[in-house]
Structure prediction request, 260 residues.
Amino acid sequence: MRETPTVMTPSTSAARIAIVTGGIGGIGTEICMRLAETGRQVIAVDLATRGERIEAFREQVASYHGAIRFEPCDVSDFKACGGLVEHIERNIGPAAILVNAAGITRDTSLRKMDPQQWHELMRVNLDGVFNMCRHVVEGMTTRSFGRIVNLSSVNGQTGQFGQTNYSAAKAGVHGFSMALARETARKGVTVNTVSPGYCDTPMVAAVPHEIRQQIIADIPVGRLGTPADIARAVVFLTADDASYITGANLPVNGGYFMSF
Ligand code: NAD
Prediction:
């Protein structure tokens, strides 16, 4: 499975290669930038179809002078994920960090949900995590180092009206993380979940105004989270010395659980 890198092997642990799926999204972009600031070589992975956003992203990260690059891949496609990882490991270097932040919503109450809305979401939010982890994990365990962080959601823990599909997938993400964490715990690879609360990103901007106001009123800190709040947790869990934290879920939600 592992290819010997032919072009570059990181010479310091800081230069480890980090793959961030959903890397051009609201939270993903911030994660890419924060990881690059800690010296990581970052590969932002996202859909090739997002032409305009890809261009804007390239401009946004231009000042990182090549420390962040874009690679297209649909994480719901198992074979494509394999090709992506092989390409990265052959041409850039071994994947040391994987952050699964690609995600979609297909909200509607269960009464109205059709199988397509269920399956489309599962293919990205849950299969995507499997597809990427499956292709990086063997190399990581062989090299005795890996940091995997999967993005779940507060709604995977509390459930949310109109989100049976999303809540099921996000709860599944943490179950997956715990199981994989057990499989890799003695091999230098940690697997953790970060569960963002409601963040000020396009995903939450799409929520109707009155519901947004109610959500904010229920957050003890009194504001929506920011992508930077989430990226901080990811940087923490992917640090070289974060080796004793695995199988954990880190909720980053402004104290939201205290409201219950
Ligand atoms: P976003 O919509 O801004 O970004 C998600 C990214 O995933 C997009 O760039 C999109 O193009 C990409 N993507 C979608 N399908 C893909 C596929 N098949 N292959 C590759 N990439 C794909 O959303 P965000 O707010 O940045 O959310 C990031 C993660 O955090 C998601 O997993 C989301 O479920 C989770 N989350 C977000 C919030 C929030 O408030 N924004 C709260 C809890 C959890």
Summary: Residues 13-199+227-252 form a domain with the Rossmann fold fold (CATH 3.40.50.720). The pocket of nicotinamide-adenine-dinucleotide is lined by residues 21-22, 24-28, 46-47, 50, 74-76, 101-104, 124, 151, 153, 196, 198-199, 201-204 (CB under 6 Å). Residues 121 and 161 are 16 Å apart (CA to CA). The chain has a mean pLDDT of 93.
